[in-house]
Amino acid sequence: MSSWKSLLLRIGDKSSEYNSSSDFKDHIETCFGALRRELAHSSSEILSFFLQCAEQLPHKIPLYGTLIGLLNLEDEDFVKKIVENTQNSFQDALDSGNSDRIRILMRFLTALMCSKVLQPASLVVVFETLLSSAAITVDEEKGNPSWQARADFYVICILSCLPWGGAELAEQVPEEIERVLVGVQAYLSIRRHTSDSGLSFFEDDESGGEVEKDFLEDLWERIQVLSNNGWKVESVPRPHLSFEAQLVAGKSHEFGPISCPEQPELPSTISAVAYGKQKHEAELKYPQRTRRLNIFPASKTEDLQPIDRFVVEEYLLDVLLFFNGCRKECASFMVGLPVPFRYEYLMAETIFSQLLLLPHPPFKPIYYTLVIMDLCKALPGAFPAVVAGAVRALFDKIADLDMECRTRLILWFSHHLSNFQFIWPWEEWAYVLDLPKWAPQRVFVQEILEREVRLSYWDKIKQSIENAPALEELLPPKGGPNFKYSGVDGQEKTEQEQALSAELSNKVKGRQSASDIIVWIEENVYPTHGLEVTLSVVVQTLLDIGSKSFTHLITVLERYGQVMAKLCSDQDKQVMLIAEVGSYWKNNAQMTAIAIDRMMGYRLVSNLAIVRWVFAPENIEQFHISDRPWEVLRNAISKTYNRITDLRKEISSLKKGVISAEEAASKANADLEAAESKLTLVEGEPVLGENPAKLKHLKSVAEKAKEEEESMHDSLQTKEALLARALDENEVLFLSLYKNFSTVLMERLPDASTDATLQSLKSVHGDSMAVDLEESSTMEVDDENEMPKKSQLNGGKATNTYNVREKEQWCLSTLGYVKAFSRQYASEIWPHIEKLDAEVFTGDAHPLFRKAVYSGLRRLSNEL
């Protein structure tokens, strides 16, 4: 990399390029000198790299803005091109709805204004254009309020610029910026308050408490405090002030006009369903970037001004966004933000808020796992203790944590511990053994240990809890497969069945084909022993042959899957097949999930059969005490969703291919027609057409192009037919899933005629279910995190008991999963909502069940 690029990239960092100096003024002067020398012969390369740096290192935008201001004194035309390119990029981002780019470019424009490159009035015009679009969108008569997500986003972008340029705007164009702020206030008065109950980290209840501010309302309050404080922000560097005397001599450029895209038209028939579909589409296009997760006590961040918290969060989120493929660079930039105060606690809260963000984290959870791990290594004296404090705080509130967040926390924490020798002070949590088996804290510890065993081995995890040996009770069973025909004592199978199993095993080891084994079963086994014994012998024996490793399992399913498919040709038999898998791997939840998932992949079992098995009585009883049935269900729905996603991608690619093929065929035909209509001289006489050899070649090309076009059309039609069938199957899947949920919940929830709420379920106490621990007169406190060394909270109550009865906890857990599934697959559920409304979400369904579904879909309803 050339030296000027390195200087531009590393500006603001303590790096070798700047002799480990941290003075921003020195950095800017050094970098400016290098750029000025290169400008004459590398201007286009500098321009594109400048814009790339500004967009992908947005926490350095004030430095880049100042550099451009200094370059403006040297070469106005070059800087004018930067402004024009930014304007084009900004318009493209608005048209395509690229929310991250819109937000970053607006901050960049603000920095250019601060450095006298952009006229303040031009920036105000940008603000007013966005504000006008937002106001029209939420207008009931002129706009489309279902697209409020975009309107809110535009206003958030405006307010987000003010920490970077509010002081300059207030000084240079006070009336205009006041007009913008009044417009924002007016917008807030006409928009609908956004309820985040469906996306909140913790289960809240409609208990009539004070309505929490949504993200925009909270940001507006922070901006008002900032305005009252004279626009002073510690967390935003203002390097342009060091060069103010020079910058004022530069020419301020105008910013070209921009236009916001029109909001989609209202549906022809206005209904709650149509509104909900468009609202969901808007929220997918313009998602809220973060939701605050307040893990630590306020004392940890009380020195921060309200706006500083917002700015540091923006820095951290930007670094996570742009360095998602470079974990070490990400951690390096996160610990070196341009702020004059410590922010480890805020950094932890921000990362955890992204890891647990609903409905989906911006990136795969493994990314956050690696970043946290690298931060612990980069800040060994501070960050590990902060992470431990966060885990303790979340553990204290685990009973109220959303079920999806709980699952992600379990997966993250078990993986995190596996990178640090599984070291954790388990004695702090040993008291969970005295809680009922359904207490969320006990289940959480049990699931952590089960996941750790998957990542290591049983004896290693047992050794890791030696400080709390009693927790061995929560480890998964150590035993291997539960093979019915092993001949071991306790396996009550007839010698005849064991002989059949041994004979089948010998046939497989003798490499007999699947068709030969099918003939043997049809002629010798099935007629004599019937379906149940035949299926049990075949499935158990084949699973046992494939039990040595994942590869063995795949090999057996590939070679002898036809045998199972022949035996289990309908859904009832497939349920029996899955039950045999569950029985064989009853001591290993991981292998149960893998085997069923692979069988679905090979089309041996359907997703409907898996749903039926999950809702079998023996699995229903585990809903609140184990993740085992939920993991299988998640895998089945996820695989179905992925199949549909893959088909959509293939169809999109084929449509592009069809267009290309049509263009190629059209060109080939045109060339052929032109050649055929051309007059040529043959032996002095005019003859119609090119010479025969060329004509033959053109005809061949045209025919091949036509064949290619027809082939692409046929492929597209085939894929579209497959997608249509998959969507129909998806509708049946969700109908089956929600009907099962509705049925099992109706059997256990309180009478629907009573005003049941989640809070009322938590308030039902059962003395016989609660186990009191020894009361301690004092509580030791970890001075670093102000957390009790022995966590004692259950459901937010400082007590060593868990007073929710088992039936109520089952209902709470199951409702939590209903909400989680609805939220995660909302995009696939909305197209089928009319059918679901007619058949499942009817007045007969329990209100708490409907509330959980509607909350997950973020669906507005006055029916509940």
Relevant terms:
864 residues, mainly alpha, two-stranded antiparallel ribbon, two-stranded antiparallel sheet, 33 helices
Description:
The chain is mainly alpha-helical and 864 residues long. It has 33 helices and six strands. The strands form three sheets. The protein has a two-stranded antiparallel ribbon with strand order 1-2. Strands 3-4 form a two-stranded antiparallel ribbon. Helix 28 (692-748) packs antiparallel against helix 30. It is globular. 40% of the residues are buried.
Total helical segments: 33
What Rg do the Cα atoms give? 32 Å
In terms of structural class, how would the helical and strand content be classed? mainly alpha
Number of strands: 6
- The share of residues in helices is 55-70%
Distance between the termini: 62 Å
Sequence of strands across the biggest β-sheet: 1-2
Poorly predicted spans: 767-793, 795-799
Fraction in beta strands = under 5%
How would you sum up this structure in a few lines?
The protein is mostly helical and 864 residues long. It has helices at residues 3-10, 24-56, 61-74, 76-96, 99-114, 120-138, 148-172, 174-190, 215-228, 244-247, 272-285, 306-322, 327-334, 344-355, 365-378, 383-396, 403-418, 440-455, 458-464, 495-509, 514-545, 550-567, 571-584, 589-601, 607-614, 617-620, 628-676, 692-748, 758-762, 806-824, 826-829, 833-839, 847-857, and strands spanning 679-682, 685-688, 781-782, 787-788, 793-794, 797-798. Helix 1 (3-10) crosses helix 2 (24-56) and helix 3 (61-74) packs across helix 5.
